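ARCHIVE CARD
Drawer: 12
Card no.: 0347
Subject: one protein chain, sequence and derived structure
Cross-reference: see card 0346
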Amino acid sequence: MKNSYTMRNLAEDILKEAKTPLSSQEIWNAAVEKALDKKVSYSGATPAHLNLYNTLNGDIKNSEKSIFAKVSKNPALFILKEKQNATSPEIIEKKIEQIEKSEESKSNNESDYGEADLHIPLAIFVDQDDHFSCKVKTIRQQKATKRKVSKSSGKVKDIWTFPDLIGIYLPFRDYHEATTDFLKKSNNPPLKVFSFELKKVLNSSNLRESFFQAVSNSSWANEGYLAAEEISDDPEFMQEMRLLTNYSV
């Protein structure tokens, strides 16, 4: 017999009891606590909370009679439409601020390790990855001879000048001797330069600053990358990241 309990039913049950708008992740977490996730027949590669987001977002967009409403885009927050008028803008703003502070705290938390500790794992990855196949070098910003200083604050703005690591791909080992001899006589050296801006966490609280920081300090490279150990999978965040990437191309 087909399971009649859907993601839509799950969201409705959770939002009926919720006192504030919730993100799809919060809805799913609450459902897991109440064991409602066991009632849903769900399988697939997409994480459950993203499937839930797509369900709610699609229901709102495709049906004027949807019982759901989205009261915030980034972060995406949902509420039952019947509760929307009774929910003040102050409550929504407070919820958004709470999520942003949580993400910012997560980004800045260096109690266990710092960004510098991620350099070695990244170096191993790009050395073994077929696309890069390169060695990398950490850039020590503190030792730079040319440093940018803000005229207004007097603070050093190295973060906009230097990436965290640079890598150079030298494919000589893959070439035949005749090819190498030819390249020595040409004016186009067979190398590719990579730039890496590295973050512990990348989410909506630091995406724009981190993205444009990476663009600023990698304009000289053949390929520039913004890398992070943990990247938010919030749907609105992913959409903004895609828009930024397309805009920069």
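Annotation on reverse: The CA atoms of residues 76 and 230 lie 19 Å apart. Residues 7-108 form a domain with the Arc Repressor Mutant, subunit A fold (CATH 1.10.10.10).
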